[in-house]
Amino acid sequence: TKSGALIGLLSEAWIGPWTEAWTLFTASGILQLARAMFAAKNIPTDHKDLIHDVSYDFYGGRMATCSSDQSVKVWDKGENGQWHCTASWKTHSGSVWRVTWAHPEFGQVLATCSFDRTAAVWEEQVGEQKGTDTHWVKRASLVDSRTAVNDVKFSPRHLGLHLATVSTDGQLRVYEAPDVMNLSQWSLMHVLSCKPGTSCLSWNPSRVHPPMIVVGTDDPGAMTSTRLQIFEYSEDARKWQKIHSIVGIVFDPVHDVAFAPNLGRSHHVLAVASKDVDIIQLVPTGTDAHGGNTKLDVRHPAHFDHQGAQVWRVEWNVTGTILASSGDDGCVRLWKGTHIHVLSYVYAHSIFL
């Protein structure tokens, strides 16, 4: 199993943005609390090849996995805390790189993307007889890319049912479902050119700022200081526009990016998985005089050494106060905000038991 796939949504462990960790708890107290809360369990997946992604649904009671064996499996958590596979099916004709859940307001809906140059939307159909396994129906196949589709993400709920993909040829595509009751119809609304080798994307979950997407690239042959690009949707122009390229912070291939949930902050916080973990703050400073796009002051408050391991996944808890990262050393690490508004290392757990 690829260790980078083993991060899901963290439970809401500590309440309050950027809690003063060392005021409320001693270092040993945080360590003991983390050990008590995060107990590792082995789940025999029966995937025949590498697992590339793990995704939890909105409530954390369902889980989806995808693999190079071209399949996706859906797991439900029972009352005893054990995970049970309730569906397994072949989704693509190539390795499946990512799987993601839509908000439950739109039903039980998954999206996948693959090396076979497509992304797909799946909807669950419940068995007619009680207790029977469910099955998943392909509602749409998005075939606009000419190269591998490396990431796929649904938009935050308040934006409606939108889907964004990035592909190796450096294209960001944004789709919209005009009728949320008919998932077989998806309109390609925008195609944006990014750096070649785009590998990952993240939607900004903020409700009070314009829609925003960050895109990362992992092209190993490109010696560039511009690994991250930010796009924003303009209501006036009714289109997505690139508003910023983050230069001089991340130089190595980017494997994952994640916006932190925004609970009242006036700025955005971005976690970047690369050779190490980087935390980037995006502070809006107004709009430009021409297009009305947001101007950003980019700050780099934290850089964390992952002890020589490549970092494959980063994920925030629901309050944006705890970050989890996983790498190819088989460890999941937790980082928590401190009173000086940066993250501090609090816990590591090896997944190779």
Q: Quick recap of the structure?
A:
It is built from 2 helices and 24 strands.
Characterization of the model:
The chain is mainly beta. The chain contains 2 helices and 24 strands. It has a 4-stranded antiparallel beta sheet with strand order 1-2-3-4, with no helix packed on it. Strands 5-6-7-8 form a 4-stranded antiparallel beta sheet, with no helix packed on it. The chain has a 4-stranded antiparallel beta sheet with strand order 9-10-11-12, with no helix packed on it. The two termini are 13 Å apart.
Comma- or semicolon-separated keywords:
2 helices, globular, 4-stranded antiparallel sheet, mainly beta
Q: What percent strand?
A: over 45%
| Terminus-to-terminus distance | 13 Å
User: Which class of secondary structure composition applies to the elements?
Assistant: mainly beta
Strand order across the biggest sheet? 1-2-3-4
Order of helices and strands: HHEEEEEEEEEEEEEEEEEEEEEEEE
Mean pLDDT: 85
Radius of gyration: 20 Å
Strands, count: 24
Biggest beta sheet attributes: 4 strands, antiparallel
**Shape from CA axes?**
globular
Helical region count?
2
Q: Helical residue percent?
A: under 10%
Regions with little confidence, pLDDT below 50 for 5+ residues: 6-27
